[in-house]
Amino acid sequence: MRSMTNSTQFEEMTIRYSRTSVPDISAFISVGTPEDVGVIIRYANSHSREILAGNRRHAWSRTLARTRNAIMIDISTLKNITVDTEANTVTVGGGVSVGDVMPALQAVGKETTTGTCNCVGFLGASLGGGHGRLQGRHGLMADNILSVRLTTATGEVITVSDTSHPDLFWALRGAGHNFGIITEATYKIYDAANGGMQYTTNKVYDTVHMTEMFEAMNNFKVPADYSALLNVLMDTNSSTPRMVLNFVSSEPEATAKAQFASVFGHIPYISAIEAVLPWASVNGRGLTGTGDFACGNRARKRIAGVATTRYNTTAILEVFEKYKKFAARPGAGAARMIFESYSVKGVQKVDPDSTAYPWRAETGVVLMNAGYTDDARADEAEDWLFEAMAIMHASSGFPRPALYMNYASGTEGFGAMYGYDEWRQEKLKKLKKEWDPHCVFSWFNPIPIDCQR
Ligand SMILES: Cc1cc2nc3c(=O)[nH]c(=O)nc-3n(C[C@H](O)[C@H](O)[C@H](O)COP(=O)(O)OP(=O)(O)OC[C@H]3O[C@@H](n4cnc5c(N)ncnc54)[C@H](O)[C@@H]3O)c2cc1C
Question: Which intervals hold domain FAD-binding PCMH-type (predicted)?
Answer without folding.
Answer: 21-192
